[in-house]
Design goal:
Blueprint (H helix, E strand, L loop, with lengths): L2 H10 L12 H15 L4 H8 L3 H13 L3 E6 L7 E6 L11 H44 L5 H17 L1 E5 L5 E5 L5 H6 L1 H15 L1 E7 L8 E7 L4
Antiparallel strand pairs: 1-2, 3-4, 4-6, 5-6
């Protein structure tokens, strides 16, 4: 899970005790967010009535959501009476709602293939590989320095991949063999349909490390992890 999704999950899984007939705090928060998303700004009283929950329970969860910046509050005055507080979802709340980025990526690749065939798809992935390569080289230089020992650059590359959701690590065998392993494929749906995605990653590792890299196992082919044997080139 990426950091944003992890944060979103923690927000919806608060340990606060249930405050209404709607059940758990997580369920109540989901109902509040969906109601605001569908209907627009509402007061705690309006939300409580629409959801069938207590005003106290709704207000408790609204405040929690406001603290995490998924809900905002504005004060509306009508005449001389008490001002009314209206709550609404913020743009940041989008991460709490369903998305279909995998479907979008697969659809775009299919459209690219329909326009230019496999050759154009390959060009797209290689262009993406060059963009990522520039960024990764800068990160490696910033984190460990351009003159760092080879193994340290490999380890830091694994850290970068891990931060991107690949559950990556580095293993050094007793004979000195270096392997970078990815225990999750963050783009699995794309990788299963487009071998070019995995080929581009292999080229990326070779390029940023200046090393000979061989893929030994492959998640998209049914293995438990993607494993890369990495050998420093003579003279590097």
């Amino acid at each position: 899970m990426d950091p944003a999704a992890d944060h979103a999950a923690s927000v919806l899984a608060s340990p606060n005790p249930p405050a209404s007939a709607s059940g758990s705090p997580r369920t109540l928060r989901r109902e509040i967010l969906e109601r605001l998303r569908r209907e627009g700004p509402a007061s705690p009283d309006q939300l409580a009535s629409a959801i069938g929950a207590s005003r106290t329970g709704v207000l408790q969860q609204l405040r929690a959501l406001e603290e995490t910046h998924f809900v905002s509050r504005q004060t509306v005055r009508h005449g001389v009476g008490r001002p009314r507080h209206l709550y609404d979802v913020t743009p940041a709340a989008q991460e709490l709602f369903p998305s279909n980025y995998d479907g979008l990526a697969a659809g775009l690749l299919a459209a690219i293939g329909a326009v230019g065939g496999d050759s154009l798809i390959e060009q797209v992935f290689q262009a993406r590989r060059r963009q990522i390569g520039d960024r990764v080289r800068r990160e490696l230089d910033d984190r460990v320095g351009p003159g760092a020992p080879f193994i340290e650059r490999v380890r830091e590359l694994a850290v970068i991949q891990d931060e991107l959701g690949y559950l990556a690590d580095t293993a050094v065998e007793p004979d000195g063999t270096i392997r970078l392993r990815e225990h999750n494929c963050a783009i699995l749906d794309v990788a299963r349909g487009q071998r070019s995605a995995c080929d581009a990653e292999l080229d990326l590792f070779r390029e940023v490390l200046g090393a000979d890299v061989v893929r030994e196992t492959h998640i998209a082919s049914g293995d438990r992890c993607c494993s890369y044997r990495i050998v420093e080139r003579a003279g590097d």
